[in-house]
Amino acid sequence: MDASSAKLIGAGLAAIGTGAAAIGVGNLFGQFLGGALRNPAAADGQFGRLIFGFAVTEALGIFALLIAFLLLFAV
After folding, report:
1. Which of 3, 44, 60, 70 has the maximal Cβ count within 10 Å?
2. How many Å apart are CA 48 and CA 53, to the nearest integer?
3. Given this model, what pLDDT does residue 53 score?
4. For residue 1, what pLDDT is reported?
5. Distance (Å, whole) CA 42 – CA 49
6. What one-character DSSP code corresponds to residue 71?
């Protein structure tokens, strides 16, 4: 296997993290909505944690995409 094909395989594997981040965001909001419908009084107190979790999950997805692009174009 030459370096070119290894680079493409590595970038593809790094891009899997963006899909995992999308699954994580969907799970995060789905669980929040499920909990908010069961206990609406506690939903306001959990909204800050929801936004923080969303930001961290999206940041990890963007970092995975960045690594994929670095492998494709910079290395």
Report:
1. 60
2. 9
3. 94
4. 84
5. 12
6. I
Give the mean model confidence (pLDDT) for residues 39-63.
94
Q: What is the DSSP letter of 18?
A: H
66, 14 Cβ separation under 8 angstroms = no
Our CA angle for 39, 57, 24, nearest 5°, is: 65
Question: Which residue matches tokens 């963006």?
Answer: 18
Amino acid identity, residue 67?
A: I
Residue 7 φ then ψ, to 5°:
-65, -40
Mean pLDDT of 57-75: 92
Domain at 16, CATH number = 1.20.20.10
The residue range of the domain holding 25 is 3-74
How many domains is the chain partitioned into structurally? 1
Choose among 3, 17, 1, 2: nearest CA to 67.
17
